């Protein structure tokens, strides 16, 4: 069974590498605009470098292998992105049939479709890695989810920037800054929470109350939905209040998880 899953992962990753690289190469730009595109993509390091540093710090704290994090990040980059893209595309006819000509209803249903498809695909990728790597500790489960989500997030941000370059170079840097500002509480957090919640509910001997497991499992879908919904377009002057509230809630949940793991898992290991 593990050989089959490993083969499937390698196959999907090989397809993903070809898909992601070709999508960048297909953009027809002048040499000057190609340089602007490269600079815009490199600007993503504003959040990628601090995120990598934090992963390294917590890797040491929770005694998680670099190999585990690297493998999770790699497959997170090249599997869930393109699979979710096809899933979202397949859902469009269903949305149109339900919403008919109502643009308002279409916007709300579309906002729900992406979270359901993307969280499921990312979660399946992380669960498969947990199975292949034979990991049982909650900290390892959580950080595998975080790395899969971070890989998905990085490639999604690059995809948005490339697509923007193909549409209009005037908006490429505003789009890049928008992706950077949203990165603080994006897919890395959603997938980490989702996978941890799912793992705790499946493994009832994990020691985590069911209520907490359901909170971690369902909150990423709800937060992702609200972020994509028309509600997030509401502002007070120049302040995006809804996105700020959603970011604060997401980070609060992440802090809750880190504190729980630090208090229970690390202390337990030290006592042993």
TrEMBL record:
Signal sequence segment: none
InterPro entries to which the protein is assigned, alphabetical? PrsW (IPR026898)
* Keyword presence, Repressor: no
Q: Name one Pfam family in it.
A: PrsW-protease
Task: Give the transmembrane ranges.
Answer: 35-56, 63-87, 140-162, 182-201, 213-229, 241-262
Give GO terms: molecular function aspect only.
peptidase activity
Q: What's in the keyword line of the UniProt record?
A: Membrane, Transmembrane, Transmembrane helix
Q: Which PANTHER family match?
A: PROTEASE PRSW
Name of the protein in its database record: PrsW family intramembrane metalloprotease
